[in-house]
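hiii so um. not sure if this is the right channel but i have a protein structure encoded as tokens and i wanna go backwards to a sequence. like what aa goes where. can anyone help
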């Protein structure tokens, strides 16, 4: 069996290699989603369901990847996402607020488990 790799766009390169050592790239945001996420981080009151869904998928993928790679490579990424979600939780509008707070708890629990 050979290693499956895929080329990542430059803005999605988290570890400096430009390649992902596992085939699950469905979570890398396309340019439009990347811009949406960036705007939500810059102006947290603009967070929307699409951004939240992406962060939820990220957590799900992180859990799967942690089973293979361990917590070392993931911990800085998950902590950075937790910091961003904390900011989003303070400004999320209406019904999205409950969803963001629930996700915040799941990220915090995952970090505690990895440590």
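sure thing!! here u go:
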């Amino acid at each position: 069996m050979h290693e499956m790799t895929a080329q990542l766009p430059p803005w999605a390169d988290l570890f400096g290699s430009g390649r992902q050592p596992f085939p699950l790239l469905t979570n890398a945001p396309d340019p439009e989603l990347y811009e949406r996420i960036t705007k939500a981080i810059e102006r947290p009151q603009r967070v929307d369901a699409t951004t939240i869904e992406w962060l939820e998928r990220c957590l799900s993928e992180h859990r799967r990847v942690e089973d293979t790679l361990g917590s070392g490579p993931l911990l800085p990424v998950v902590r950075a996402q937790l910091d961003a979600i904390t900011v989003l939780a303070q400004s999320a509008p209406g019904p999205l607020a409950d969803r963001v707070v629930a996700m915040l708890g799941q990220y915090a629990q995952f970090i505690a488990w990895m440590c």
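oh and The longest helix spans residues 49-69.
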